[in-house]
Write a structure and sequence with these properties.
One of its GO terms (biological process) is mRNA pseudouridine synthesis. It contains 4 helices and 4 strands; from the N terminus they run ββαααββα. With 203 residues, the protein is of the alpha+beta class. The radius of gyration is 23 Å and the shape is flat. The protein starts with 12 loop residues before the first strand and ends in a 34-residue tail after the last helix.
Length: 203
């Protein structure tokens, strides 16, 4: 399977399913996401205590930059049928890390011939192959090495430029790392999210 998948998608293991109606999407009961952010000027202490995620990543980024109060996430969640006008933060730093599935699918059987599989446990065991795991490790080690070399080269250039900026213009505040999380046009003056115009109700 990995031979036909894109390079950035790899199958680590697979599981035989007893019921062909089992849905990896609809029979998933929990999902664990991991978010990766550059520290930059983000308030990591606040994030660790109040992280909510979801589609409010934009508010989270603003909160971490201390442009918003820590309560802004709860306020956004309490809007229910409406939302403030903001563009979602880009999602490349978001990683679906793990999923849990129910033992028995809740998908309805299409006909009575499926009656005999209703009493069976749909899930079995994950199956792994050593060669596949070794190959995946090899690929990721290669990508990690390339990324690290590129990061070190860029960091070296940044050090030189930051020192030059400080020497020529006595400037120190050059934390722009988090700008990559925001793809909208930056305004000269920041307007708090809850003071912005409210969009119409969700449909």
């Amino acid at each position: 399977m990995n031979r036909v998948l894109p390079k950035n998608i790899r199958c680590i293991s697979w599981m035989p399913i007893q019921n062909h109606l089992f849905s990896a999407r609809f029979d998933c009961i929990t999902r664990t996401y991991r978010y990766f952010f550059p520290k930059g000027n983000l308030n990591i202490t606040v994030r660790q205590g109040l992280d909510q995620g979801f589609s409010f990543q934009r508010g989270q980024v603003y909160k971490d930059q201390e442009k918003e109060e820590p309560s802004v996430i709860n306020e956004l969640l309490n809007l229910y049928c409406s939302k403030t006008q903001y563009t979602p933060a880009i999602a490349f730093h978001l990683n679906l890390y793990h999923g849990e599935f129910r033992d028995k699918s809740e998908q309805k059987t299409m006909n009575e011939c499926q009656q005999e599989i209703r009493d069976l446990r749909d899930l079995t065991k994950w199956l792994y192959k050593e060669n596949n795991l070794r190959r995946l490790i090899e690929i990721l080690q290669s990508e990690w090495s390339q990324a690290q070399i590129k990061a070190i080269m860029i960091r070296s250039t940044l050090d030189d430029l930051e020192q030059l900026l400080e020497k020529k213009f006595n400037a120190f505040d050059v934390n722009f790392q988090t700008s990559l999380l925001q793809d909208d046009v930056k305004s000269k003056s920041y307007q708090k999210l809850m003071n912005r115009k409210i969009c119409g109700k969700w449909k």
